[in-house]
Amino acid sequence: MEIDILDDLESLKFEYGIPEDERYWLYLQGRYRGLMIKGCAHALFFCKLFCTLRELIRQGRRKLHPRSVSFDAASVEDDSLKVGVIGCGHLGKQLVNVLLRLVPIPAENLHISTRRPESLVEFQKLGVRCLYDNASVASVAKVLFLCCLPSQLPNICLKIQNKLEKTCIVYSFVSAIPLPRLKLLLNHTNILRPQYHFTEEFDNDWGDAKEITAVLQDLEVIRGTYPYSNVGGVILSIKWLEGVFYAAINACTAKNVYHSQVLQILNKLFLSAHLESCETDKVSCPKFQLTDFLNKNYINSLFHRRPFPWFDLTTVQLKETPFSQHLSATPALQNHLTLLYAQSFGITPSKEELSEVSAGSPQ
């Protein structure tokens, strides 16, 4: 049981020195915490998803080359998810803890670049590589999290833009830098940036004074992080979820997986969790088709044994796509994705809860 030693010591609390007429602004403190918790939760879900994706791709390649033992052995190391984090302030440290403890990413696959690597002794003892070398971290990362200050980003981008592999997914928490600007700074198209909005009414249900790794094991808090949830006053733009889908397709394209196989992988990856209604009405259970991701004119010119085209994720997150229309028009798919998200945290929501989340979606 955790005890707050400041409970009975009002004069030592942060709020004590704030004039009464300015205490209204304290809600921003809770909003910041809610934003950080949601950001870490969605990054956790993304990394878990991509660990599974890389394994599904490897299994598919093994089936195509069953006798190539050396090929398979060599691919194991290459297919492990190596994660880089640039910037390890408060957000960066919380994110690293979440990646290590809850995904979990093996410590040897995690690389951190920060101006004060000597302050990260607890991570170094675990085997995490901590240094002050943005270019080195960017060069090895399959997923690169940007947790730096907006003022630092232009110089960082200048140092790393020639070190990024085309397939590296840059995941930016720097909300002050819009996607088109970030794409220009990095000269890179494989970028994800979750966008969050706030409602006027804010409920501070974000587990005060607890570490985020502990908070993300609280069932009520996790329910508040569902992609379609507006609980707590912090709302995720569903364009991020679209970006995750197209990022998964790009990962398959990079491995030259044919589009018919990609659809099978997407069905296994995103639709592995089934609703009760799928048992009684199998027709209602969604399955992905080419038309969900590509326009019909392009499909007509696509040969059977060809991968998907490479998608610019910044365009996906800024404009309407075929998948935008499909996702918004298919409540069953929204429910499946909510179920998948919940189960990645060890929760199985009821049918009523899923309906309530979809009905309350601001999208």
UniProtKB/TrEMBL annotation:
GO terms for MF: pyrroline-5-carboxylate reductase activity
Pfam families: F420_oxidored
One of the GO BP terms on file: L-proline biosynthetic process
Domain Pyrroline-5-carboxylate reductase catalytic N-terminal positions: 82-170
Gene3D superfamilies given in the database record: NAD(P)-binding Rossmann-like Domain
Domain of life the protein comes from: Eukaryota
Annotated keywords: Oxidoreductase
Transmembrane segments: none
InterPro entries xrefs: NAD(P)-bd_dom_sf, P5C_Rdtase_cat_N
Known function: Probable oxidoreductase.
Similarity comment: Belongs to the pyrroline-5-carboxylate reductase family.
Protein name: NADP-dependent oxidoreductase domain-containing protein 1
Organism: Myodes glareolus (Bank vole)
